[in-house]
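seq as requested:
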Amino acid sequence: MSLTILIADPHSPIRQSLRTLLESQPSFTVVGEAADGPGALSQARQTRPQLVIIDVEMLDFQGLESARQILAELPGVKVMALAMFADKRFARQALDAGVVGYLLKDCAHEELLAAVQQVQAGHLYLSPGIDLGPSPPEEGSPPGPQKPKSFGSPLAPQKEESMPYSKKVKDLMIPLEDYPHIPYWFTLRQAMAIVREAAIKFEGSFEPRAVLVFDEKYQLMGMLTLRDIIRGLEPKFAKDAGLIKADPNLAVLMGDMFGPGMKEQSQKPVSEVMSPIKITVNGDAPITKALFLMISENVGMMPVITDKKVAGMVRMSDLFQEISQVVLGD
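C-alpha cells:
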C-alpha cells in the first residue's frame, strides 16, 4: 500500500517539482496540493493523507500554524516541515509543534525521498544543514550561570590569541544561523517580529540593525535595514519635507503615523523596500580587507561569503574592537 502525501507550498514550481519526484516512486501517492496554510488544512481534512509536507515559512506564519492544527485535528497524520532557511528558531518551533521532519528546500531534490522513507519508518529527519544548537533548559529547572555570547570574539576557543592582523573575517563574523534572515515574501510586520525576537535573544551582545533577504533558492537578494522598514511604513514626513517646515515637532502627524494606516502598510512585502547589497567579503579574507571595503563603500556591515554561499555578517563595530585592542594595548 502506497504512502499518501499532501504537498503545501506557496510556489507552484516547487509543488510541481516535489510532486514529480515523489510520484517517481510507486510507493508514494500525492493526493493533493495547497498554496497556503488554510488550503493545506482544508485539503488535509478532505483527503486524510498519511503525510503532509508543508512550507512552515509561509506568509504570516500560516504554514506553522496550519501544521499545528493538522496535528491537533488529525492524530494519524504526520507532518514534515519544508523550509528555505536553516534557522534554529523556525526548526525548534516546528519540532515543538510535533513535526517529524525538517527539510531544507535547497536540499530537497537530493534528500526528499530518503527523508520521506525515514519518516515513514517512524524516525525523525533533519536536513544535515540544520544545527539546533544546545537544548534549552527544561521548564522549572534552575538556570545555570550564563554569559552573553560576544560576537566580537572568535567563535571557538583558541590556544593562542591571534593578533588582529592575522585574523580572518570569518573569525569575527556573526554566523548566518544566528543572524536574522528572511525570505523575500515576508511582510514588514513579520520582519519587525524577527528583529524584535533577535534583539531580545541577544540582548547585551548583539543588536540587529538589518535583516538579510533571500530568494527561494537561498540566494541573497538584499538587506532590510531599520530605516527601510520605517520608510516602508510610509509616514508622511518621509515623503514630504515641507511638512517639517510647517510643523517642526510633527505633532499633527502623530495620530496618522500611529493609526490604522501603519498596520496596513506593515503587510507590504519586504522585497518592495529592501536595499541592494553594496559589497560582500570572503570569509578567508584578512580583516584589513573588510575594513577597506567598508570604508570605501561607506557601510557599517557586510555579508560574508564562504564557498559561494552567505556564511554570516561582519560589522564595523567588531572590526573596531580588534583595532582598539592594538591601539590601547589591551
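Residues 188-201 form the longest helix (14 residues).
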